[in-house]
Design goal:
Number of domains: 4
Mean pLDDT: 83
Number of strands: 10
Oligomer: single chain
CATH architecture of the largest domain: 2-Layer Sandwich
Shape: elongated
CATH topology of the largest domain: Alpha-Beta Plaits
CATH class of the largest domain: Alpha Beta
Helix content: 55-70%
Strand content: 5-15%
Strand order of the largest sheet: 2-1-3-4-5
């Protein structure tokens, strides 16, 4: 449909023209109206109008002044002038401004329809002449151009034969330093001919600084073979190994634009998938919800606990969940690298504060940041930090916390504010609850709950020496119920928390 606006200061003219002409039958669509030249200019720009029916005499800005402004700003819009004045100067000026037609009011419907039909034919011809090559046709197709889609469906473009039952779009993307060379010289690569040697039904074209490939195939394994052949050919010719993103198979050409939208999302998140180099850009991947996948950012303290306990399973699970968090939320490369670095640094600092023997040379930690920034994909970064974390865990096991009871005591002492249960601790240590309880009783001379409450009250006494409310102290040592805190405090110390606080301030 040809986008059209009506610009006239008379409401009856604007409304009348909108209804008396069968615009849809003529292939037109009224996308806006305006009551003067200023508003008309803005309406043309906002609606990207292709045709404007304009009254010459209007307040504020005349039709002539409007057209002069459009010409000055290189706005391509066909103009039909309307006027109630048979003035030769107006007609002369209209010719100078390359206005399509100069029509007198009152307007004859048949006359206007005839002129609109002529303009329609001109616009269609101009559009066909603008689209000179298959490359431009295909690029517009991928961008969802409705005229191109209609033209292909109607067989308007003889050189494009894609009367297929399924379509796949792929996009070749090189590194930034190589992309310009590949984009400018791709024709010399004969990618289409190369693919056709092995695989019939391929169109190759430049697309937004990258290379697009349109393929007639639904089978993923055959598609993978085709794009692998192209990738190897590019590698041999330019010593460039590009990334190739392959979209889902679609059944109609008007769905290709949606495929491209999905591919662009993958390209924007290349760091997440880049290690694969040939990526199947699945639409479903961007529809996942938090119910589909475990997504959470781990606390450094939680990972530290798993490291100190040498719980390999917990370390792997936490770090894998961490990776999925970034994939699920489509986080950018810089944020991911910084997050991974900060996680490792926080865990490392916690360990060094607790176990000084673990401390490594500061120069290595400085080098570590540069190593993180050089990682080319999330997979590479993830493997690197997992290796570093597991290495720390092994060092801890060999240096200090080399007995189960030491690990248990360390864990309890660091997590007094948490909801500690012997069942959770037994699970972390890979013991049964009964075995865990027996070991604690034998090594510490008291059961788990007794030891836990004693350590919590000891910590509470330290906190009560500070300017902290008693209710806050109770929470900081793991008691959600203040009455329970008062009970254990008095049982262990022989006085209430308030009495103890008064005694140390007197």
């Amino acid at each position: 449909m040809i986008r059209t606006v009506i610009i006239d200061d008379e409401p009856l003219i604007r409304e009348g023209l909108s209804v008396v002409i069968d615009w849809e039958r003529l292939g037109y669509e009224i996308v806006g109206t305006a009551d003067n030249g200023y508003n008309g200019y803005n309406t043309i720009i906002e609606t990207k109008a292709e045709v404007a029916i304009v009254d010459i005499m209007m307040p504020d800005m005349t039709g002539l002044e409007l057209v002069e402004l459009l010409k000055k700003d290189n706005v391509n819009c066909k103009i039909i002038f309307l006027t109630a004045y048979a003035d030769f100067e107006y007609a002369k000026k209209s010719i100078e401004l390359d206005v399509c037609y100069y029509l007198m009011k009152p307007l004859e419907e048949k006359e206007l329809e005839d002129k609109l039909q002529i303009i329609s034919d001109i616009i269609k011809k101009e559009k066909r002449n603008t689209i000179l090559t298959n490359e431009k046709i295909l690029e517009k197709l991928v961008h969802g151009d409705k005229d191109i889609i209609e033209g292909i469906n109607s067989g308007q473009f003889d050189s494009i034969n894609i009367n297929w039952d399924s379509f796949r779009l792929a996009v070749i993307q090189a590194e930034e330093t190589d992309s310009k060379e590949l984009y400018n010289n791709y024709a010399a690569l004969d990618l289409g001919d190369t693919a056709d040697k092995y695989y019939k039904g391929t169109y190759v074209f430049r697309l937004d600084g990258n290379i697009g490939i349109l393929l007639h195939e639904e089978n993923e394994s055959k598609i993978f073979r085709a794009v692998t052949i192209l990738q190897k050919h590019i590698k041999r010719t330019y010593n460039i190994t590009p990334y190739i993103y392959v979209g889902d198979a679609v059944n109609t050409i008007d769905e290709i634009a949606n495929t491209y939208t999905i591919i662009k999302k993958y390209m924007q998140n290349r760091f997440l998938y880049g290690y694969k180099q040939i990526v199947l850009a699945k639409a479903d991947e961007f529809k996942k919800t938090e119910d589909d996948i475990a997504v959470r950012k781990i606390r450094a303290a939680d990972l530290y606990d798993a490291v100190c306990l040498n719980n390999i399973k917990a370390i792997n699970t936490m770090l894998d969940d961490y990776r999925e968090y970034f994939i699920h939320n489509r986080c950018n490369e810089e944020y991911i690298k910084l997050s991974y670095y900060n996680l490792y640094k926080d865990v490392y600092v916690l360990i060094c504060n607790r176990i000084p023997e673990i401390a490594e040379a500061s120069s290595e930690e400085t080098d570590l940041l540069s190593q993180f920034t050089m990682m080319n994909s999330l997979q590479e970064l993830h493997g690197f930090i997992k290796y570093k974390i597991l290495l720390l865990s092994e060092k801890i096991s060999s240096i200090n916390l080399n007995t189960p009871i030491k690990k248990i005591i360390d864990y309890i002492d660091r997590n007094l504010d948490q909801d500690l249960k012997i069942e959770k601790l037994a699970e972390l240590m890979h013991y049964s609850c009964s075995h865990m309880g027996k070991m604690i009783k034998e090594e510490l001379g008291e059961n788990f709950n007794s030891y836990l409450n004693r350590k919590r009250i000891e910590k509470a006494k330290e906190l009560l020496q500070q300017d902290i409310k008693i209710s806050e102290v109770a929470e900081k040592v793991g008691y959600k119920n203040s009455n329970l805190f008062f009970t254990y405090f008095k049982k262990i110390n022989g006085c209430t928390p308030l009495e103890y606080k008064k005694s140390i301030t007197e």
